[in-house]
Amino acid sequence: MDLISSSTGYQDLLYLRKSRIRTAQVRAALAVNQELVLLYGGIGNEILPVSAPRVGERKSSWFHNCVLLDKVKAPVERAWYIEQAIQNGWSRNVLVMQIESGLYRRQGKALTNFQATLPPPQSDLAQQII
What we know:
The protein is an all-alpha fold. It has one domain. Helices cover 78% and strands 0% of the residues. α2 packs antiparallel against α3 and α2 runs parallel beside α4. It is rod-shaped. The termini are far apart. The mean pLDDT is 80.
């Protein structure tokens, strides 16, 4: 009987220790995650007004900001992409595609008659697509 009760006591003790460890690990992960969210949110709030002062009330999303921070180093280019994403309603995936295809560097280099034949929003979009 002593072996069974001591074995059960040991299993209970082991279960409690494992439970405490898991709880501490979860709390630590949540604390780290919360700090990272606060950090990245603060960085986004600092960068957006500096890099795109003409944007006004319209804003880019958190995911757009992350993409821009990762992929675009020049502030002027970053501001241009922010403005274009907001004006044209680009999703994050479209923004990534435009950055990776070098739209900023290619803008306005194709000769077309879009401005003469289309209204301004459509001509701008058609020019950007080319």
